[in-house]
Each structure stands twice: as C-alpha cells, then as structure tokens.
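Proteins fold reproducibly. Take a tokenised chain:

. . .
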Amino acid sequence: MLDYSPERLALQYATHQALHPGTYAILVPRHKTNLPRYTPILIAKASNDDEQWITLHPDPTEHEHYVRVLIKRHADGTGHVISGGGNLRGLKLSRLGSSKEWAKKSRERRAERRKKQKEREAQLTPEQKAARETAKQEIAHKIKEKTLKQINTAAKLGLPG
C-alpha cells in the first residue's frame, strides 16, 4: 500500500531535491492527501556534522510507533533533541554511540544468531533434516503453482504480465 501522508510526500520531495541544510515549508497538493488545499509541511535538514536524524522507538515490540527526531551530539556521548517529535524538543539522550559502534554491535548480534542457527541445525536428526527439505520443496512448488495461476488469470482478463 502506498503511503500518501503529507509528511511522507514532503520527505520524498526533500530527498529528491538537493536542499541545503535548514528548515523548509513544503506545500503538499490536496489531491494527494485529505488535507485542505496546499497544506504546508515543515521539514528540517541537519546542518552540522554534530547533528543527526535518528529514530526513537519507545516500545521495541511495536514497530508502528516511532518518532524521527533531529539530535545534536555532544562530546561526552550524550545528545539532546533539537527538532521533531513535538514535545520531545530539549530531551536529553544518553548512551548514544557512533554509527561505527552500532554497526559493530549489529554484526556481533548477527554472527551470534547465525551461530545459534547452525547449532540448532547440527542437533537435527537425519529424519528431521529430510522432513525440512521436503517441506521446503512443497512450499516452493505451491508458490510456483500460485504464481502460474495468477499469470493465467491475468492473461484471461487481458492484463499485462
């Protein structure tokens, strides 16, 4: 499903244009949204190396609820919100790592997950491995059948593809 929210449209415009750092009011046409005609949407672009856009996840189990904020990093590893998030402006953030540190932690977590997966696969009996392969083949066959059915239905209706 396409996201035609005003914020999304303004962000798409800003990313496709070479905008200089600063704050912009972008007018979004009403035929794209359910808002009044040419609703201005404010967006801000980071201006310094110590400023960065991040995503705050208040509850990691809920993937829909997140807030994009512009933060200013300090030398001591903390930062504070300078834009976005409405009432979060001025909020002090601790435990901010550099992008290299986060990438390193991500690689370590990924390696740990792979190691655990290999251990689980090593504990499988030959019968379980055969059953798993059979299930994979059945699923692949069902997907292929469904794809062919969709293509044939589209051809009957005169649709491309």
Notes: The first helix runs from residue 6 to 16. The beta strands are 22-28, 39-45, 51-56, 67-73, 79-83, 92-93. The first strand starts at residue 22 and ends at 28.
